[in-house]
Amino acid sequence: MRIVLIGAPGAGKGTYAQIIRDKYCIPHISTGDILREEIAKGSELGLKVKSYVERGLLVPDEIVIEVVKRRLEQPDAANGFVLDGFPRTLEQAKALDRMTRVDAVIHLVISEEVAVKRLSGRRICPVCNRVYNIYYEPKPREDEKCDYDGAQLVRRPDDEPDVVRNRYKVFYETFAPIIDYYKKTGRLIEVDSNRSVREVYPALEETLRRDGILKLKPCREESRTG
């Protein structure tokens, strides 16, 4: 199962990627996480990425494409993957088709108002990168601490309401060609992500099974959905 998750900020890409990863034991590949790790390590790639980030510029397609290509060649992606944060341009989408088969692109559709509220309550584990929310599911079992490693959860600075509204607008301006590309190739699945995780995930999973995309058996008996 090779799928891509796209959606405006707050749509739940990280949350659904975690659920699928944990239940079916296929990697959640987040280009943002990979690039941040390279910057933190001070690698040659990280220094290149940092030079663009510090100037407020987008990392060039050729660099991001090479990063994703290397990651998809790793053994743990042999049975499938969940891509989050890639592709972000039409050229990246076409490059992804050249490097591997993409079974479906799931567009998590969310309203601007729900996105703003959801992101204002989002918290992230700095150790394992799991995503929680203090207003919505999945909520941490202990007050703002990760269920898995007990780390203190943090809030991203770009989750302020005005920033979220701008990011929401930019997303749909930027992703219109990508959404159209996958729609024309019959691989786009649109899901109403305004609802709770408990409502959305079973419907999403059923759609993937019905369309013959999800053929894997769960590698674990249970997966936390909120």
Automatic annotation (TrEMBL):
One GO MF term attached to the UniProt entry = zinc ion binding
Ranges in a coiled coil? none
Q: What is its EC number?
A: 2.7.4.3
Taxonomic superkingdom: Archaea
Q: Which UniProt keywords apply?
A: ATP-binding, Cytoplasm, Kinase, Metal-binding, Nucleotide biosynthesis, Nucleotide-binding, Transferase, Zinc
Carries keyword Nucleotide-binding? yes
Q: Which residues bind AMP?
A: 31, 36, 57-59, 85-88, 92, 156, 167
* Annotated SUPFAM superfamilies: P-loop containing nucleoside triphosphate hydrolases
Q: Give the residues the record marks as binding Zn(2+).
A: 125, 128, 146, 149
Q: Where in the cell is it found?
A: Cytoplasm
The signal peptide, as residue positions, is: none
Q: What positions does the domain Adenylate kinase active site lid occupy?
A: 122-158
Where ATP binds, per the record, is at 10-15, 122, 131-132, 195
PROSITE patterns in alphabetical order? ADENYLATE_KINASE
GO terms for cellular component = cytoplasm
Give me the ranges of the annotated region NMP. 30-59
Family matches, as InterPro entries: Adenyl_kin_sub, Adenylat/UMP-CMP_kin, Adenylat_kinase_CS, Adenylate_kinase_lid-dom, P-loop_NTPase
Q: Which GO terms describe its biological process?
A: AMP salvage
What does it catalyze?
AMP + ATP = 2 ADP
Q: What is the role of this chain?
A: Catalyzes the reversible transfer of the terminal phosphate group between ATP and AMP. Plays an important role in cellular energy homeostasis and in adenine nucleotide metabolism.
Recorded domain comment: Consists of three domains, a large central CORE domain and two small peripheral domains, NMPbind and LID, which undergo movements during catalysis. The LID domain closes over the site of phosphoryl transfer upon ATP binding. Assembling and dissambling the active center during each catalytic cycle provides an effective means to prevent ATP hydrolysis. Some bacteria have evolved a zinc-coordinating structure that stabilizes the LID domain.
PANTHER family in UniProt: NUCLEOTIDE KINASE (PTHR23359)
- UniProt cross-references to HAMAP family, sorted A to Z: Adenylate_kinase_Adk
Q: What family does the entry list?
A: Belongs to the adenylate kinase family.
Protein name as it appears in the record: Adenylate kinase
Q: Taxonomic lineage per UniProt?
A: Archaea, Thermoproteota, Thermoprotei, Desulfurococcales, Desulfurococcaceae
